[in-house]
Amino acid sequence: MTGHAIVVGGGIGGLATAVALRRIGWRATVLERAPELGEIGAGMSQAPNALRALDELGVGEQARATGVPSYSAGNLRLPDGRHLQRARRGEATPLLAFHRADLHGLLLEAVPGGWVRTGTEVTGLRQDDGGVTVVWDGGELSADLVIGADGIRSTVRRAVWPDAPPPRFLGRTAWLGVADTSGIPSDSGELSGSITMGPGAYFLIHPISRGRAYWAFVTTADRPDLRYEQEKAEVAARLAGWHHPIPDLIAATPDKAVIHIDIRDLDPLPTYVRGRVALLGDAAHAMSPDRGQGAGQSLEDAVVLAAALHTESGIEAALARYDAERRPRTQATARGARADGRRTTSTAAHRTLVTMIRLMPAPLWRKGIAADGNATWRWRPPRLPEPTTHS
Protein backbone atom coordinates (compact mmCIF):
# COMPACT_ATOMS: atom_id res chain seq x y z
CA MET A 1 0.00 0.00 0.00
CA THR A 2 1.27 3.45 -0.95
CA GLY A 3 -0.29 6.87 -0.77
CA HIS A 4 0.06 10.50 0.21
CA ALA A 5 0.07 11.73 3.80
CA ILE A 6 -0.09 15.21 5.26
CA VAL A 7 2.08 15.60 8.36
CA VAL A 8 1.08 18.57 10.49
CA GLY A 9 4.15 19.78 12.39
CA GLY A 10 7.77 20.04 11.32
CA GLY A 11 9.48 19.16 14.59
CA ILE A 12 11.47 16.02 15.32
CA GLY A 13 8.40 13.75 15.30
CA GLY A 14 6.99 15.23 12.12
CA LEU A 15 10.25 15.02 10.19
CA ALA A 16 10.89 11.48 11.44
CA THR A 17 7.45 10.54 10.14
CA ALA A 18 8.23 12.00 6.72
CA VAL A 19 11.50 10.05 6.59
CA ALA A 20 9.71 6.84 7.60
CA LEU A 21 7.01 7.36 4.97
CA ARG A 22 9.64 7.88 2.29
CA ARG A 23 11.17 4.54 3.18
CA ILE A 24 7.89 2.72 2.48
CA GLY A 25 7.23 4.49 -0.81
CA TRP A 26 4.68 7.04 0.43
CA ARG A 27 4.74 10.74 -0.37
CA ALA A 28 4.36 13.27 2.41
CA THR A 29 3.65 16.96 2.73
CA VAL A 30 4.87 18.46 6.01
CA LEU A 31 2.99 21.59 7.05
CA GLU A 32 4.81 23.79 9.57
CA ARG A 33 3.31 26.99 10.92
CA ALA A 34 6.66 28.69 11.63
CA PRO A 35 7.98 30.87 8.81
CA GLU A 36 11.33 29.06 8.95
CA LEU A 37 11.96 25.46 9.83
CA GLY A 38 13.98 24.93 12.98
CA GLU A 39 13.89 23.34 16.42
CA ILE A 40 13.45 25.48 19.49
CA GLY A 41 14.82 24.50 22.87
CA ALA A 42 18.23 23.51 24.12
CA GLY A 43 19.44 19.93 24.53
CA MET A 44 18.20 16.38 24.75
CA SER A 45 19.43 12.81 25.04
CA GLN A 46 18.42 9.65 23.24
CA ALA A 47 18.43 6.23 24.86
CA PRO A 48 19.09 2.87 23.11
CA ASN A 49 15.47 2.46 22.03
CA ALA A 50 15.50 5.80 20.22
CA LEU A 51 18.85 5.06 18.59
CA ARG A 52 17.40 1.83 17.17
CA ALA A 53 14.54 3.86 15.73
CA LEU A 54 17.02 6.26 14.14
CA ASP A 55 18.86 3.27 12.66
CA GLU A 56 15.61 2.04 11.10
CA LEU A 57 15.01 5.51 9.69
CA GLY A 58 18.41 5.30 8.02
CA VAL A 59 20.03 8.14 9.98
CA GLY A 60 21.58 6.26 12.90
CA GLU A 61 25.12 6.63 11.60
CA GLN A 62 24.72 10.38 11.18
CA ALA A 63 23.17 10.63 14.65
CA ARG A 64 26.11 8.87 16.28
CA ALA A 65 28.50 11.17 14.44
CA THR A 66 26.55 14.21 15.67
CA GLY A 67 25.67 13.22 19.23
CA VAL A 68 27.97 12.98 22.23
CA PRO A 69 27.96 10.09 24.75
CA SER A 70 26.53 11.14 28.10
CA TYR A 71 26.81 9.10 31.29
CA SER A 72 24.24 11.14 33.18
CA ALA A 73 22.08 8.08 33.96
CA GLY A 74 24.98 6.50 35.84
CA ASN A 75 26.52 9.55 37.54
CA LEU A 76 24.30 10.60 40.43
CA ARG A 77 25.49 13.26 42.85
CA LEU A 78 24.42 15.39 45.79
CA PRO A 79 24.57 19.20 45.79
CA ASP A 80 27.78 19.10 47.84
CA GLY A 81 29.45 17.06 45.09
CA ARG A 82 29.43 13.60 46.67
CA HIS A 83 28.62 10.74 44.31
CA LEU A 84 25.70 8.41 45.03
CA GLN A 85 26.54 6.24 42.03
CA ARG A 86 29.33 6.66 39.52
CA ALA A 87 29.41 5.35 35.97
CA ARG A 88 32.49 3.56 34.69
CA ARG A 89 33.12 3.87 30.99
CA GLY A 90 32.76 0.48 29.38
CA GLU A 91 30.49 -0.72 32.18
CA ALA A 92 27.59 1.71 31.75
CA THR A 93 25.47 2.41 28.68
CA PRO A 94 25.82 6.03 27.60
CA LEU A 95 22.96 8.07 26.28
CA LEU A 96 23.58 10.05 23.11
CA ALA A 97 23.17 13.77 23.76
CA PHE A 98 22.35 16.44 21.17
CA HIS A 99 21.45 20.03 20.78
CA ARG A 100 17.85 19.73 19.61
CA ALA A 101 18.69 21.68 16.46
CA ASP A 102 21.38 19.15 15.49
CA LEU A 103 19.04 16.14 15.62
CA HIS A 104 16.33 18.13 13.87
CA GLY A 105 18.79 19.13 11.15
CA LEU A 106 19.93 15.62 10.32
CA LEU A 107 16.32 14.46 10.03
CA LEU A 108 15.54 17.41 7.77
CA GLU A 109 18.41 16.43 5.49
CA ALA A 110 16.78 13.01 5.04
CA VAL A 111 13.44 14.50 3.92
CA PRO A 112 13.14 14.91 0.14
CA GLY A 113 13.23 18.45 -1.17
CA GLY A 114 9.86 20.08 -1.64
CA TRP A 115 8.11 17.99 1.00
CA VAL A 116 8.16 20.70 3.70
CA ARG A 117 5.94 23.78 3.53
CA THR A 118 6.57 26.48 6.16
CA GLY A 119 4.41 29.42 7.16
CA THR A 120 1.29 27.23 7.03
CA GLU A 121 -0.81 27.26 10.19
CA VAL A 122 -3.50 24.61 10.02
CA THR A 123 -6.89 25.84 11.22
CA GLY A 124 -9.06 22.77 10.68
CA LEU A 125 -9.69 19.58 8.77
CA ARG A 126 -12.49 17.50 7.41
CA GLN A 127 -12.58 13.90 6.34
CA ASP A 128 -14.75 11.41 4.51
CA ASP A 129 -14.39 7.85 3.29
CA GLY A 130 -12.08 8.92 0.49
CA GLY A 131 -9.55 10.99 2.38
CA VAL A 132 -8.80 13.98 4.60
CA THR A 133 -8.58 17.67 3.76
CA VAL A 134 -6.47 20.05 5.83
CA VAL A 135 -7.42 23.74 5.81
CA TRP A 136 -5.30 26.81 6.51
CA ASP A 137 -5.73 30.53 5.91
CA GLY A 138 -5.81 30.86 2.17
CA GLY A 139 -5.58 27.23 1.17
CA GLU A 140 -6.32 23.57 1.66
CA LEU A 141 -4.85 20.20 0.71
CA SER A 142 -6.26 16.69 0.57
CA ALA A 143 -4.51 13.38 1.18
CA ASP A 144 -5.12 9.75 2.07
CA LEU A 145 -4.02 10.26 5.66
CA VAL A 146 -3.29 13.10 8.10
CA ILE A 147 -0.78 12.72 10.92
CA GLY A 148 -0.92 15.25 13.73
CA ALA A 149 2.63 15.77 14.95
CA ASP A 150 2.06 19.34 16.06
CA GLY A 151 3.02 19.16 19.71
CA ILE A 152 1.39 19.33 23.10
CA ARG A 153 -1.01 22.10 22.00
CA SER A 154 -1.92 20.24 18.82
CA THR A 155 -4.45 21.83 16.49
CA VAL A 156 -5.19 18.40 15.02
CA ARG A 157 -5.98 16.97 18.45
CA ARG A 158 -8.33 19.84 19.27
CA ALA A 159 -10.08 19.48 15.91
CA VAL A 160 -10.62 15.72 16.00
CA TRP A 161 -10.68 15.13 19.77
CA PRO A 162 -12.53 18.29 20.88
CA ASP A 163 -13.46 16.86 24.28
CA ALA A 164 -9.89 15.90 25.22
CA PRO A 165 -8.63 17.86 28.24
CA PRO A 166 -5.93 20.49 27.69
CA PRO A 167 -2.32 20.02 28.84
CA ARG A 168 -1.97 19.57 32.59
CA PHE A 169 0.50 21.53 34.72
CA LEU A 170 2.50 19.10 36.87
CA GLY A 171 3.56 21.53 39.60
CA ARG A 172 7.12 21.75 38.30
CA THR A 173 9.18 24.23 36.34
CA ALA A 174 12.57 24.09 34.61
CA TRP A 175 15.39 26.34 33.49
CA LEU A 176 17.41 25.15 30.47
CA GLY A 177 20.61 26.35 28.88
CA VAL A 178 23.60 25.54 26.68
CA ALA A 179 27.05 26.63 27.85
CA ASP A 180 30.42 26.81 26.15
CA THR A 181 32.63 24.58 28.31
CA SER A 182 36.00 25.63 26.90
CA GLY A 183 36.74 27.82 29.92
CA ILE A 184 35.37 25.44 32.54
CA PRO A 185 37.97 23.16 34.18
CA SER A 186 37.01 19.48 34.47
CA ASP A 187 39.44 17.34 36.42
CA SER A 188 37.12 14.55 37.49
CA GLY A 189 34.76 13.92 34.56
CA GLU A 190 31.95 16.21 35.69
CA LEU A 191 31.25 17.20 32.10
CA SER A 192 30.72 13.60 30.92
CA GLY A 193 27.13 13.88 32.11
CA SER A 194 25.53 13.75 35.54
CA ILE A 195 22.38 14.27 37.58
CA THR A 196 22.62 16.09 40.89
CA MET A 197 19.74 15.37 43.26
CA GLY A 198 18.81 18.00 45.81
CA PRO A 199 15.79 18.37 48.10
CA GLY A 200 12.90 19.22 45.81
CA ALA A 201 15.04 19.67 42.70
CA TYR A 202 17.62 18.15 40.38
CA PHE A 203 20.24 19.43 37.95
CA LEU A 204 21.07 17.57 34.71
CA ILE A 205 24.24 17.92 32.63
CA HIS A 206 24.73 16.48 29.13
CA PRO A 207 27.82 17.13 26.99
CA ILE A 208 26.86 18.06 23.43
CA SER A 209 28.77 18.82 20.25
CA ARG A 210 31.27 21.61 19.62
CA GLY A 211 32.55 21.86 23.18
CA ARG A 212 29.23 22.67 24.78
CA ALA A 213 27.09 21.28 27.59
CA TYR A 214 23.33 21.26 27.93
CA TRP A 215 21.98 21.77 31.44
CA ALA A 216 18.55 21.69 33.03
CA PHE A 217 17.40 22.60 36.53
CA VAL A 218 14.01 21.14 37.48
CA THR A 219 12.15 22.09 40.66
CA THR A 220 8.65 22.57 42.03
CA ALA A 221 6.40 25.56 41.38
CA ASP A 222 3.16 26.61 43.02
CA ARG A 223 1.64 27.79 39.77
CA PRO A 224 2.47 27.96 36.06
CA ASP A 225 3.65 31.01 34.16
CA LEU A 226 5.68 32.43 37.05
CA ARG A 227 8.53 34.32 35.39
CA TYR A 228 11.41 36.51 36.53
CA GLU A 229 12.89 39.68 35.11
CA GLN A 230 16.35 38.09 35.14
CA GLU A 231 15.92 34.35 34.61
CA LYS A 232 19.65 33.59 34.63
CA ALA A 233 20.15 35.47 37.89
CA GLU A 234 17.22 33.63 39.44
CA VAL A 235 18.52 30.15 38.62
CA ALA A 236 22.08 31.13 39.57
CA ALA A 237 20.90 32.30 42.98
CA ARG A 238 19.01 29.06 43.59
CA LEU A 239 22.11 27.01 42.77
CA ALA A 240 24.85 29.20 44.25
CA GLY A 241 25.93 26.57 46.78
CA TRP A 242 25.82 23.55 44.47
CA HIS A 243 28.97 21.76 43.40
CA HIS A 244 31.33 22.51 40.52
CA PRO A 245 30.74 22.91 37.58
CA ILE A 246 27.07 23.89 38.07
CA PRO A 247 27.60 27.61 38.88
CA ASP A 248 30.19 27.82 36.08
CA LEU A 249 27.80 26.33 33.52
CA ILE A 250 25.14 28.86 34.37
CA ALA A 251 27.66 31.72 34.27
CA ALA A 252 28.88 30.55 30.84
CA THR A 253 25.37 30.59 29.38
CA PRO A 254 24.38 33.83 27.62
CA ASP A 255 21.72 35.68 29.62
CA LYS A 256 19.12 35.62 26.83
CA ALA A 257 19.77 31.95 26.10
CA VAL A 258 18.42 30.74 29.45
CA ILE A 259 15.01 29.19 28.80
CA HIS A 260 12.34 28.91 31.50
CA ILE A 261 9.48 26.46 30.89
CA ASP A 262 6.69 24.88 32.91
CA ILE A 263 6.33 21.11 32.82
CA ARG A 264 3.06 19.72 31.52
CA ASP A 265 1.77 16.46 30.14
CA LEU A 266 -1.48 15.10 28.69
CA ASP A 267 -4.15 12.91 30.19
CA PRO A 268 -4.31 9.61 28.29
CA LEU A 269 -6.52 9.52 25.22
CA PRO A 270 -8.78 6.51 24.56
CA THR A 271 -7.40 6.25 21.03
CA TYR A 272 -4.72 7.91 18.88
CA VAL A 273 -6.68 7.44 15.63
CA ARG A 274 -10.02 8.56 14.25
CA GLY A 275 -10.94 7.81 10.68
CA ARG A 276 -7.93 8.71 8.56
CA VAL A 277 -6.32 10.92 11.20
CA ALA A 278 -3.59 9.75 13.60
CA LEU A 279 -1.79 11.56 16.41
CA LEU A 280 1.92 11.11 16.96
CA GLY A 281 4.51 12.29 19.47
CA ASP A 282 3.60 15.07 21.90
CA ALA A 283 0.28 15.60 20.14
CA ALA A 284 -0.72 12.12 21.34
CA HIS A 285 1.22 11.56 24.55
CA ALA A 286 3.19 14.59 25.72
CA MET A 287 5.08 13.55 28.84
CA SER A 288 7.33 15.08 31.46
CA PRO A 289 11.07 14.97 30.69
CA ASP A 290 12.00 12.80 33.68
CA ARG A 291 12.70 9.66 31.65
CA GLY A 292 14.20 11.49 28.68
CA GLN A 293 11.72 9.78 26.38
CA GLY A 294 9.64 12.53 24.78
CA ALA A 295 11.43 12.71 21.43
CA GLY A 296 12.42 9.05 21.60
CA GLN A 297 8.81 7.92 21.76
CA SER A 298 8.05 10.16 18.78
CA LEU A 299 10.78 8.42 16.80
CA GLU A 300 9.33 5.04 17.77
CA ASP A 301 5.86 6.23 16.71
CA ALA A 302 7.12 7.18 13.26
CA VAL A 303 8.72 3.79 12.64
CA VAL A 304 5.75 1.78 13.89
CA LEU A 305 3.25 3.84 11.89
CA ALA A 306 5.25 3.41 8.69
CA ALA A 307 5.67 -0.32 9.27
CA ALA A 308 1.91 -0.72 9.77
CA LEU A 309 1.14 1.22 6.58
CA HIS A 310 3.66 -0.91 4.69
CA THR A 311 2.37 -4.30 5.80
CA GLU A 312 -1.38 -3.88 6.32
CA SER A 313 -3.85 -4.04 3.43
CA GLY A 314 -5.61 -0.75 4.17
CA ILE A 315 -5.31 2.49 6.08
CA GLU A 316 -7.96 1.56 8.63
CA ALA A 317 -6.19 -1.67 9.53
CA ALA A 318 -2.81 0.07 9.62
CA LEU A 319 -4.01 2.78 11.97
CA ALA A 320 -5.71 0.24 14.23
CA ARG A 321 -2.42 -1.63 14.49
CA TYR A 322 -0.50 1.58 15.18
CA ASP A 323 -2.90 2.51 17.97
CA ALA A 324 -2.80 -0.97 19.51
CA GLU A 325 1.01 -1.04 19.52
CA ARG A 326 1.80 2.51 20.52
CA ARG A 327 -0.88 3.64 22.95
CA PRO A 328 -0.15 1.17 25.80
CA ARG A 329 3.61 1.72 25.62
CA THR A 330 3.57 5.50 25.35
CA GLN A 331 0.95 5.96 28.03
CA ALA A 332 2.85 3.67 30.41
CA THR A 333 6.01 5.66 29.71
CA ALA A 334 4.18 8.92 30.41
CA ARG A 335 2.84 7.55 33.72
CA GLY A 336 6.32 6.44 34.70
CA ALA A 337 7.84 9.80 33.82
CA ARG A 338 5.21 11.60 35.87
CA ALA A 339 5.87 9.35 38.87
CA ASP A 340 9.64 9.77 38.52
CA GLY A 341 9.22 13.52 38.46
CA ARG A 342 7.17 13.51 41.64
CA ARG A 343 9.81 11.44 43.43
CA THR A 344 12.86 13.36 42.26
CA THR A 345 11.38 16.76 43.15
CA SER A 346 9.81 15.76 46.45
CA THR A 347 11.52 17.38 49.41
CA ALA A 348 9.88 14.90 51.79
CA ALA A 349 11.07 11.85 49.81
CA HIS A 350 14.59 13.13 49.12
CA ARG A 351 16.36 11.51 52.06
CA THR A 352 14.71 8.13 51.49
CA LEU A 353 15.47 8.19 47.78
CA VAL A 354 19.10 9.12 48.38
CA THR A 355 19.51 6.32 50.92
CA MET A 356 18.05 3.77 48.53
CA ILE A 357 20.38 4.83 45.70
CA ARG A 358 23.43 4.94 47.97
CA LEU A 359 22.77 1.43 49.31
CA MET A 360 22.19 -0.14 45.89
CA PRO A 361 25.21 -2.26 44.84
CA ALA A 362 27.03 -0.67 41.90
CA PRO A 363 26.77 -3.81 39.69
CA LEU A 364 22.98 -3.84 40.19
CA TRP A 365 22.82 -0.14 39.39
CA ARG A 366 24.83 -0.59 36.18
CA LYS A 367 22.64 -3.54 35.18
CA GLY A 368 19.57 -1.32 35.43
CA ILE A 369 21.05 1.24 33.04
CA ALA A 370 22.41 -1.29 30.55
CA ALA A 371 21.11 -1.15 26.98
CA ASP A 372 18.60 -3.91 27.79
CA GLY A 373 18.34 -3.12 31.49
CA ASN A 374 14.79 -1.77 31.50
CA ALA A 375 11.61 -2.26 29.52
CA THR A 376 11.77 1.18 27.91
CA TRP A 377 15.28 0.76 26.55
CA ARG A 378 14.72 -2.85 25.39
CA TRP A 379 12.31 -1.88 22.60
CA ARG A 380 13.15 -3.15 19.13
CA PRO A 381 11.74 -1.50 15.98
CA PRO A 382 9.90 -3.24 13.18
CA ARG A 383 11.90 -3.41 9.99
CA LEU A 384 11.35 -0.87 7.25
CA PRO A 385 12.36 -1.39 3.61
CA GLU A 386 15.16 0.53 2.00
CA PRO A 387 14.01 3.96 0.82
CA THR A 388 12.48 4.42 -2.60
CA THR A 389 13.26 7.42 -4.76
CA HIS A 390 10.94 10.44 -4.83
CA SER A 391 11.55 13.91 -6.17
UniProtKB/TrEMBL annotation:
Keyword Hydrolase: no
Region annotation Disordered: where it falls in the sequence: 326-345
InterPro entries to which the protein is assigned, alphabetical: FAD-bd, FAD-dep_Monooxygenase_BioMet, FAD/NAD-bd_sf
Protein's name according to its UniProt entry: 2-polyprenyl-6-methoxyphenol hydroxylase
Residue ranges crossing the lipid bilayer per the database entry: none
Flavoprotein in keyword set: yes
Domain of life: Bacteria
Residue stretches making up the FAD-binding domain: 5-335
Keywords: FAD, Flavoprotein, Monooxygenase, Oxidoreductase
GO molecular function: FAD binding; monooxygenase activity
Cofactor(s), by name: FAD
